Request: fold
Amino acid sequence: MEDRAKVIKFSKNSKVEIGIIPGHFATSHSHVNFYVDLTSIKTSMKMARETAKELGSLFNTTHIDTVICLEGTEILGAFVAEYLSGAGINVDKDINVITPEINMNNQMIFRDNVQKKIWGKDVLLIISSASTGKSINRAIDCLQYYSGSLVGVGAIFSAIDEIHGISVKSIFTEDDMPQYINCLPAECPLCAGGKKVDALVNSFGYSKL
Reply:
């Protein structure tokens, strides 16, 4: 499977790149024909910083109090906060960076000691990949519990442009992957064609079958 891997560089900054592997992959709620490897951006300090400059620049005119990081984007989220505090309307501001806990019911929750970072705050959500928007929806529900206001969503890769009227801004889009497929398992053309699933994928990576 790995021998099919390709590298895609961001058109505006060649220091930012992702890997893609064509095939047949199953997420928890959909089937896709590309595995998008975001490992380097999530783990490399230098690449995360470069990515944060590009992603942060998309929110220069958005007032932000708190950055919430999902799917292993804590390093990226911290650099985004650093960038925002040095540019635009958030200059010299101390921006909070937090991560939700996932309970046994697969709900996002925040403990009492960090709820004050959300209550009445303008929140930027950072997510690694947005294919269907389900994770973003779950975050929106969570923020309603804690009276936080979602003012933007930033993603490394996204196949959607907006959700519930909120713009989803990303570095890479499905336009970077010609003939990108993202569908319900029951509607998957690859399954219908008898193609075996190559791997199960989630925000941590992939497990080959």
